[in-house]
């Protein structure tokens, strides 16, 4: 492929002239983008260091930075990068990177590179800065502020005289570019240098990239809404969002895994031949991080053996033949009024009921309700940002009172100050209903969040609503928050009000290849194939991909003979993507969209090299496996699979 590198070093004579009268240099080079990703470092930095030494200059240090124009990440890197004693910064990058450093560094910044005006790519990075790639850069004259893109009239020799109170006469919402240039140069003591420059002439035959920059502006505003990064995949929820819940027919047999939660599998408490009832405990939590398991039907235990599992291959499971009577266990009875229950009793009820996170993670909820640090805010995740799925949407609409009761219980259990129900703006009916229902509660509010994936991830939701940032390796409680899924919260209400443990859940069965999609209330242990068959099977021709969950974070199902579990929020049937994987071109899109502010391209490179230490140093363990990087990757690299391999290797490192 032909590399698209965005910049090249200026000629030697021009660089020597640039160095005259300037010393104590710190050199920053961008590691380039849109190129074959073979090496992390580029040669320009070394060439500049050699040239500076040749001309008797002191270099205080140097650094190569990936995607220098990414202001969010570059700002963090610059904080401890530039040593004391530095007087000038020399930047080898395109105009975007140079402007970014000039905005952040607080020192005179000089361009050592020329932007290349390759059509169609330049200026696509996630940055507040823009560049016309005019190949006639003025940044060394104007203190790193581009008059071509910052000035509404693109004036290159000073202001027009029409500014009022420092604002542009063309666009009063903008600061006058030349006012900013003057103030920056004045602060850096460079006004005399600027005023001695000859009149600048612009060659208007050069390519203009205004249309690209306008596009970037709109993309940037969307991506930085609430939290860094994220993507906007096609939602495709219209097939089921309006469909009311149906109770799925009683299964003749259920296969209930003893491991459908984070942590240790439960230990069976029944034997083959035992008669069981709905809500009866059939598996005992085996550790602090574990969960009780209960029967979803009444009937007879016919086997306790390894059966197929959607994510673990096989798992010890309790097989029960239903008698069709749904006889309730004697333990299933209301647990009392919420006002009369202590926080400890609420947590005990949740633990006994086997309630876990029902958004897919399966973390035991009772453990969440025992935070090691004080919690002031409970966030209910009603975003359901995963495409296609509408299970939580229907729970909000059809079990609103239960959701509010469950939120009250969580608030009391952890002594929080308030509860916030967060719903994305693509669910206006749920927002309106929940606002109506919570109007009388002083400690509850409903937040309408702009739709963006993966907003439902705990750390993203906390950042979006509270502005707090969960530290690397930290938990929501570290910033005073607990996040609960909508269906999980409804299950808490069932456990207290009815005494019913977690034995059923709402499942969306949908996808463009499914004949009759729907939202169903399904008993845990029901066979997945039965749901697909009940919905009429698949339509159309060609290979079908079945997934448990949504298209972004769901798991491929090579065999439909697996049970519905506590975390099974959806089963989808979609077209298979056979796009072939290509080599990484280092476009930087994955770094732009990663909500954890990581660099996924390095995870792919290091995984191929089995450089597990490199993955550890790049903080692979912070990855939430949301697949934003994989979704945006033009080379179709299976990044998440490589990341999972890296995590496994890092966990095994001594």
Automatic annotation (TrEMBL):
Its cofactor is [4Fe-4S] cluster. GO terms for cellular component: plasma membrane. Binds 2 [4Fe-4S] clusters per subunit. Keywords: 4Fe-4S, Cell membrane, Electron transport, Iron, Iron-sulfur, Membrane, Metal-binding, Repeat, Translocase, Transport. [4Fe-4S] cluster 1 binds at residues 584, 587, 590, 633. Its EC number is 7.-.-.-. Pfam families: Complex1_51K, DUF5981, RnfC_N, SLBB. One of its GO terms (biological process) is electron transport chain. Residues 572-604 form the 4Fe-4S ferredoxin-type domain. It is an enzyme of class 7 (translocase). The complex is composed of six subunits: RnfA, RnfB, RnfC, RnfD, RnfE and RnfG. PANTHER family: ION-TRANSLOCATING OXIDOREDUCTASE COMPLEX SUBUNIT C. Belongs to the 4Fe4S bacterial-type ferredoxin family. RnfC subfamily. Part of a membrane-bound complex that couples electron transfer with translocation of ions across the membrane. This is Ion-translocating oxidoreductase complex subunit C. It comes from Candidatus Scatomonas pullistercoris.
